Amino acid sequence: MAYLQLNTKSLKHNFKYLDAIFKKDRKEWGVVTKLLCGNELFLKELLKLKPKTVLDSRLSNLKKIKEIDPSVETVYIKPVPQRSIDDLLAFADISFNTQFSTIKAINDRALKLGKRHQIVIMIEMGDLREGVMREDFIDFYDKVFNLKGVEVVGLGANLNCMNGIMPSHDKLIQMSLYEQLIEAKFNKKIKWVSAGTSISFPLLTKGLVPEGVNHFRIGETLYFGNDIVEHTNIPEMKQDVFLLKAEIIEIIEKPKNPTGLVGVNVAGEKPSFEIMDYKETSYRAILDIGLLDVDPKHLTIIDEDHDKYGLVGSSSDMIVIDVDENKANFKVGDLVSFKVDYMGALTLLNSKYIGKRII
């Protein structure tokens, strides 16, 4: 079975690196766990690092986190379906909200349960995903402050996830000003001004985050050690937290050109091929993983000759790679290692057919 490997040493290194930066700049941060898809083995390793707060977009994942460590603060990071409010109050200490009708429903249910639920109100800052419109936010906060079953602990914004709108110094200053306006008008203290996700982290390292913005939600940069604005690795961080290991189930020298009438393949594509010498051959390795588990475009082979290797094709349960003259002497039963990007890891973690291991 192919498996995804979590390197706990590299994860710990990246966590400590980020934690030191946030502490130096006097910012709070939480770890976004949605990538882990509720995998208990991986969640336990993450929670050993003692993050103050974990954030997820699935209530079932937050339930698993609370089962592992009831003391950790949990945050639900998308507007909750009203039919899931009971689960929200059971497994999330804080939730992100944008609809007054939903907040009112949370409030009413919390009062019946003798609870007070904490909420962050999201403001629309241009990416056009979730968020209260800026011209409406004062009236919105006014209505919410009158509710007794919820406590407003923050304002936040999401950027880049929907339409690719980037965070900027100006947008973060606007958020800071909104917090000051709310505190001045309503005489209320807002604990968090949540600047965003890993996409905002490079602004912090460049000194472009205003003092009033004091909270970050970090996932991708923790797990992959990357600057997702510049699409580069952060030299001080590790990039091998996740590795995919796939077993070779066939390796045979074959012609480079297929023969016969070309039709539509299982993925609904009609392949095209370069005209080449039909006598040319290369070794092709079939791996025990397929499109059902991951799109190969999210994988990078780890081998000194990987620049010579190429993806030949893929079907639902198999991926075929060209290993040229097979100088690495691959054979059936060998494991081929791949780096994975965020979307690759996400689909692999969501696949029940891929094993999960730690080192």
UniProtKB/TrEMBL annotation:
Family matches, as InterPro entries: Ala_racemase (IPR000821), Ala_racemase_N (IPR001608), PLP-binding_barrel (IPR029066)
Keyword terms of this UniProt record: Isomerase, Pyridoxal phosphate
Protein name: Putative amino acid racemase
Stretches assigned to the Alanine racemase N-terminal domain: 7-226
Source organism of this protein record: Zhouia amylolytica AD3
Single GO term (MF): alanine racemase activity
Cofactor: pyridoxal 5'-phosphate
GO cellular component, one term: cytosol
